[in-house]
Amino acid sequence: MQPRFCSVSDLSKVQDDEVGDGTTSVTVLACELLRGAEELIGKKIHPQTIIAGWRQATDEARRALRDSAIDNGNDPEKFKQDLINIAKTTLSSKILTEQRDYFAELSVDAVLRLKGSGNLDAIQIIKKLGGGLRDSYLDEGFLLDKKIGVNQPKRVENAQILIANTSMDADKIKVFGARVKVDAVSKVAELEVAEKEKMKDKVAKIIKHNCNVFINRQLIYNYPEQLFADAGVMAIEHADFEGVERLALVTGSEIVSTFDNPENVKLGYCKLIEEVMIGEDKLLKFSGVALGQACTIVLRGATQQILDESERSLHDALCVLSQTVKETRTVYGAGCSEMLMANAVTNLAAKTPGKEAVAMEAYAKALRQLPTIIADNAGYDSAQLISELRAAHTEGKTTMGLDMENGEVNDVAQLGITESFQVKRQVVLSAAEAAEMILRVDDIIKAAPRQRAPDHCM
What we know:
Strand 13 and strand 14 (408-411) form a beta hairpin. The longest helix is centred in the middle third of the chain and has 23 residues, at 185-207. By secondary structure, the chain is an alpha/beta fold. The strands form four sheets. Strands 4, 5, 6, 7, 8, 9 and 10 form a seven-stranded mixed β-sheet that branches. Strands 1-12-15 form a three-stranded antiparallel β-sheet. It has a three-stranded mixed β-sheet with strand order 2-11-3. The protein has helices at residues 3-18, 23-42, 47-68, 76-91, 100-112, 185-207, 222-230, 241-251, 304-326, 336-351, 356-377, 382-394, 412-415, 421-439; strands at 70-71, 123-129, 137-140, 142-144, 155-164, 213-216, 234-236, 255-256, 268-278, 281-289, 295-301, 329-332, 400-403, 408-411, 418-420. The two termini are 35 Å apart. Helix 3 (47-68) crosses helix 11. It is built from 14 helices and 15 strands.
């Protein structure tokens, strides 16, 4: 793979890490900028001149985007509607497009529970086969996909939770890989008794922490499980590492591995732990956790592939919404913002003397390619629609965009097609920076491929 392709791939990953959405837009814009730069270089325009024009164009595009942004952060009702519109826009290009109204409400409810913190670790997504996508729901509290040990309490109120990552499987001698030399079988029994006593002491230290729920990252074998049951402690084994980390966060506890100093260990708390049924599976539900905004989204679907893709789509929506909660400004989508920025850059190019103006016009053309591709992908005549959209914006109708339901130019403010200001700004910045970096490369030197030996067929 050539380095330039690696750069574009990394660009998409950075966009996903930063704001969670806009990965396709940022890649397309960067490639369109490079396509325009290639034509300009063919006309003997120096790359530094192109970059200078791009930088001025980027500043002007950002200014136009900032001026067109709408901030309803001080009006809870309007802001919630903005969030729902943003979620619908994000989900409209993904597998959840048919149920985007339902999942937009669900994701907004989950993000608003965070109360502005934007900590997505407090939102857990659990995938369970069976049912349809509309059977998915938002559950308050935390769900752990594990079962309670044998003969242990199935329901615990006012739970004091000790979360650990420690070995609880040393209650018998491991035969494989171990070397034990004894002169009688009775000595083996003595070793097993010693191991049991060691485990018994370890369990006693854990119980001294005054916990009534013990959750371990590793396995809990039969003997310690029996000891916990005798002490009336609910023991949960083999909780995956991500689940343990998230559980420690929402219950306010620490993950420990040694138990000699109970006074230094912070226990977690929740009002109720009980078993619940989801489909045909039993899960543990933690209600009334210390981190009150914690919640779980339970996804249902017919196949594992649908569940995996739905999780990815929902994660994008949650990331965008969490960014919007922090930066409450929004802009219009459906090609409206791109055309607005393109017209602003074109107007600046008309006032700028020198070859930089040519680079600015190429930048504006690249911005107009985004709504063009939207129209092409929908199967409409992009040349007709984009010319109408450009004329509408020139007349001052700056809220006009592409209505892909009817294949026409329409007022996106009335259609409710809204996007996050943060996402759109990041698309423009990242695409321009990546294209500039690639354009600065004079040449690429690579080693010749290894010669393949000829095949000698009989």
